[in-house]
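Why does residue order matter? Because the sequence determines the fold. Keep that principle in mind as you read this record.
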Amino acid sequence: MLAFIAMLGGCTLAPTYRQPELPLASSWTGSESPSSQPAAGGQWWRGFRSTELDSLIARGLNRNYTLEAAVSRIEQARSAADVVRAGQLPSVSLGGLSQQQNNYSTQKKRSVFAQTTYEVDFWGKHRAATGSANALAQASVYDAQTLRMTLGASIADTYFQVLSLQERLRLAHSIAADAQQVLDLIQVQASLGASSSLEVEQQRNVQQTFAAAVPLLAQLRDQALFQLAVLVGTAPEGFRLEQTGLDGIQVPKPDAGLPIALLRQRPDILAAEARLQSAHFDVGVARAAFLPSLSLDLLRGVDTLGNSLIWSVIGTLSQPVFMGGQLTGQLHADRAHVQELVASYRESVIEALQDVETQLSARQRLEQAYAIHQAAVESAREAVRLAQVRYRLGATDFQMLLIAERSQYQAEDSLLQVRLQYLQSAVGLFRALGGNFTPSAIAATAASSTPSVVKDIHP
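Structure:
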C-alpha cells in the first residue's frame, strides 16, 4: 500500500516542457568574420586595460545597493520555495489535554499526544507547485545576473563618459585660450589701424562662445561623475577619478560567437525561460485540483491519569463537485499565462538578437567614422595654422580665420565624441552578449545571498 501511494505521489499532471521554436540564423549580419565557436565569457572589462575601471566595477559589483536588493530577492524566492516544498511532507505537532468534569462525580482527564497530518500527493499537485516555486527562485537568480550584467556595462559607459568630458573640457579651455590670443593680436592691430573694430568684436564673440562651453561641459562632467559614484555604491561627495582622459584605454573587439549561444548566455533570456517553466508547473497544479485528494490524520498519545494509550486514524477523501467555475477558470488562466510567457520568451530572444546586431553594426560604423574624424582634425588644424599665417601677412581676410577656428573646434570636439561612442559600442556588445556569462559568475550571484548554491542554474 505504501509503495502504491509513493508511486502515485511521483506522477505529475504538468505538461511536458519543450523549448519554443525560435527563428535563429547561423551567423550575425554585422559580423565581419563569423565565428564557429561560442563567445568567450569572463571579466570582459579587463580588455580595456584600465586598472581604475577594473577597480570601479569590482566596487560596484560588491557595493551597489540595487544589486544588493536583487540578491536579497533571491533569498526571498528561495524561502517562498521552501514554504511550498513543505506541502510535500507530513506535518507533526505535539499537544496536551487537561479536562475536568463535575456532573454527578468529578472526572479528570489528562493526556499528551503527537499528531501527524499528511496529504497524499496522488496527482503530483504539491510536486508541481514545488517545481513552479523552484523555477521562480531560479528566475530570481537570473534577474540578479541581468542586473549585474547591466551594472558592469553602466559603470564602464559612465566612466568613459567622465573621461571623455574631461578631455572635451580641456579642449574647450585650450580653444578659448587660443581664441583669446588671436583676440589680443587683433586688438593690437586695431590700435595700429591695421584691423577694424568689427573684426575685434567678431573675434571677441568667437572667444566668448568657446569660453561659454566650459561651464556647460564641466556641469555634464560633474553629473556623470556623481552618477558613477552612485553606481559603485559611494556617496558623490569627494568622489574623484585618478585617470584624466582616455589616453591608454584600449578598445577590445569581442567575438560575437554564434547566435544560438545567446540562449545559454543572456541571463534575461534564461530568466524568461525559467518563468515559462514555472507556468507549465502551474498548469499541473490547476489540473490536479479537479481530482480527489486524500488526507491522513494520525494521532497517538497516552492518558497520564489512566496510564492508557490513545490513538486514532482518520482518512479524508474529498472530490470537488461544484466550485462555480473556479477550477475551470484557474486552469484557463494558467494555460493563457503559458501562452503569454511563450510570446514573452520569443520576444526576449529576438530583442537580444537585435541588440547584438545593433552593437556589431555600431562597432563597425563607428570605427570607420573615427578614422574619418581623425583625418578631419588633422586637416582642420592645418587650416587654422595656414589661416593665421596668411592673416598676419594680410593675404586673407578675417572671415577665413574665423571659419577655420570654428571648424577646428567642431572637428576636435566631434572626434572626442565619436571616440566615446566607439568605446561604448564595445561595452554595448559585451553587454548584449550577456556580460560575464560564465557559469561560475552566475553561480556566484546565486550563492552571494546564502551559503547554499542553487543547483543547475546554468545552461
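The longest strand covers residues 106-120.
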